[in-house]
Amino acid sequence: MSPRPPGADLPEHPDRLWNAAEPKSSYDVVIVGGGGHGLATAYYLAKNHGITNVAVLERGWLAGGNMARNTTIIRSNYLWDESAGIYEHALKLWEGLEDELDYPLLFSQRGVLNLAHSLQDVRDSVRRVEANRLNGVDAEWLDPRQVKEVCPIVEISPDVRYPVMGATFQPRAGIAKHDYVAWGFARAAAALGVEFIENCEVTGLRVSDGRVTGVETTRGSIAAGRVALCAAGHTSVVAATAGIDLPLQSHPLQALVSELLEPVHPTVVMSNAVHVYVSQAHKGELVMGAGIDAANSYRQRGAFHIIEQQMAAALELFPIFARAHVLRTWGGVVDVTPDASPIVGLSPVDGLYLNCGWGTGGFKATPGVGWCFAHTVAHDEPHPLAAPFSLDRFVTGALVDEHGAAAVAH
Amino acid sequence: MLLIPCPWCGPREEAEFHYGGQAHVAYPEDPAALSDEEWARYLFFRDNPKGVFAERWSHSAGCRRWFNALRDTATNQIHGVYRVGEPRPVAS
Ligand SMILES: Cc1cc2nc3c(=O)[nH]c(=O)nc-3n(C[C@H](O)[C@H](O)[C@H](O)COP(=O)(O)OP(=O)(O)OC[C@H]3O[C@@H](n4cnc5c(N)ncnc54)[C@H](O)[C@@H]3O)c2cc1C
Ligand SMILES: [Zn+2]
To answer: Nearest CA of chain A to the CA of B38: how many Å?
Structure first.
């Protein structure tokens, strides 16, 4: 008897969640970028609006950008009404998303603490709690002892350089598994007829008489009735091919994980003053991040001194982490606006729609922005929750300034 | 981490510097005369190229002087630095 070839006894390949498509010559809607936002937009275009002749063009592989690089914090406790509107809409969708997509997302409402370390922090935080409540967003102000009850490993001694003076707590906030979210949306959208075309970089937008007519790509030209940009950190590059300038700056944002540890951290802790945020993934890694690298860059990596600073901050808040080892660090390219709020809506070119500027905090918005952006594309008119995030707010001055207001990014 | 050649002090670690964004953005000569669109462009719009970018740095933990650099944002390679007031060199 001849020996069996290696691998002959392996089980069958599991069912594919979607099938890679060859580009057709034309689509009703082309979505540029297969991250979370592009996938969610495709899903809701098909599901809510019956628009299924849709292609998602992705220059790499699906969800290989920031969608697979973020630290998965989900919350809706933003200060301003406009932000509360869209982020709370997203959080409500998250609460039903596993059922909606019939897919596990490891969505875990373990709460988010935003620590206050100075009198000004305390005042801003209490104000934000009141604003959140008026907007129907769950929010509590906790004193240091209560903070310790929610998260026993936080150092609340008054003797450290930036003592914890309290925290806001949003119990419904939490984390989810980002790649599952991408797969869930991709599978559900594919089932409704959406096509995914990977390794297909959009190199130019075709515009004639002020109206978009299609895209040039590394896999040929594709005609499109409408084009929806979901290219995150590369939006400026794509928009520039249609002569559109956007108030965006692209920066690396880094994150890191520790080796796998026993469950020690039951919630999510964010601190803007000490500047780190930490949660513990289901698998056991401590997941940490902080701020962007200061200089503009399209490199998906940042400088090590940024990592060093965030580790120092983490140790100040969590002395128990002193012996934990860093397993891996990485970066993504995020598109930052002057007011730290996104741009979602119409563009100066008819049939071309903008969804960008989510910077360091767009993962949490994924279902909400997919919902609102799909509506915007389908109706050629901003969804009411997206309307405040128009491009022309930078001319009218109606900014949604979450920079100072939200206390923390992400 | 970038190794940035300060035009006065020579190559130093990025951690000694403070970033100043796009270079050569002049304050409008007559701000009150600008339209809302022009004011928005001055205030909020900066170039964001994937490629060579003229930008400002301050050697804040060194000589504390501002200067300009030409850096490629796709590779982070610094093509050259020049002092404030000097013309932008042609990128090699
Ligand atoms: C380290 C890090 C931590 C973060 N932490 C959080 C967090 O805790 N909570 C939170 O809410 N947010 C967080 N974010 C932000 C969040 O990841 C982003 O706002 C969000 O992922 C952006 O939407 P997206 O998923 O569609 O982006 P992406 O996944 O980046 O999708 C954009 C896609 O467009 C593709 N693309 C670009 N140009 C082209 C082109 N020319 N042609 C075709 N395709 C193109 C890219 O390859 C990419 O796949 C974090 C980001 C990073 C980098
Ligand atoms: Zn110097």
So the answer is: 8
Residues in chain B: 92
Write the ipTM. Answer: 0.97
B50 touches chain A (CB under 8 A): yes
Q: Which residues of A touch B48 (CB under 8 A)?
A: 236, 246, 248-250, 296
A236 to chain B, any CB pair closer than 8 A? The answer is yes
CB-based contact A55:A198 (threshold 8 Å):
no
User: Above 90 in pLDDT, residue A3?
Assistant: no
Residue A387 half-sphere exposure, CB side, CA atoms within 13 Å? 7
* Nearest by CB: A338 against B44, B50, B53: B44
pLDDT at position B90 is 84
Query: Is the CB of A144 inside a 6 Å radius of any atom of ligand 1?
Result: no
What pLDDT is recorded for position A407?
45
Q: Is there a contact between A245 and B45 if contact means CB atoms under 8 Å apart?
A: yes
Residue of B nearest to A296 (CA): B73
Give the integer Cα–Cα distance in Å for A153 and A245: 46
Cross-chain residue pair B50–A298, CB shorter than 8 Å: yes
CA angle A231, A235, A236 (to 5 degrees): 165
Q: Within a domain: residue A265?
A: yes
As a whole number of Å, the CA-based R_g of chain A is 22
Q: Whose CA is nearest to atom 33 of ligand 1?
A: A33
Among A335, A354, A376, the domain boundary falls at A335
Assigned domain for A102 exists: no
Quote the CA–CA distance of A236 and A257 in Å, as a whole number: 30
Segments of A201-248 assigned E as strands: 202-208, 211-217, 220-229
Give the residue-averaged pLDDT of A209-227.
Answer: 98
Q: What is the pLDDT of residues A53-95, one digit of tens each?
A: 999 999 999 999 999 999 999 999 999 999 999 999 999 999 9
Q: How many structural domains are present in chain A? A: 2
Please tell me the predicted confidence (pLDDT) of residue A8. 81
Rounded Cα–Cα distance for residues B16 and B3 (Å): 10
Q: Is B14 on the interface with A (CB under 8 A)?
A: yes
Residue A15 within any structural domain of the chain: no
CATH superfamily membership of B3-27+40-83: Folate-binding superfamily (3.30.2270.10)
Any atom of ligand 1 within 6 Å of the Cβ of A64: yes
B49 in Cβ contact with A246 (< 8 Å): no
Alpha carbon distance A207, A225 (integer Å): 11
CA angle A211/A66/A250 to nearest 5° reads: 65
What is the total residue count of chain A? Answer: 410
| Domain that includes residue A59, residue range | 26-70+179-247+338-406
pLDDT at A98 (0 to 100): 98
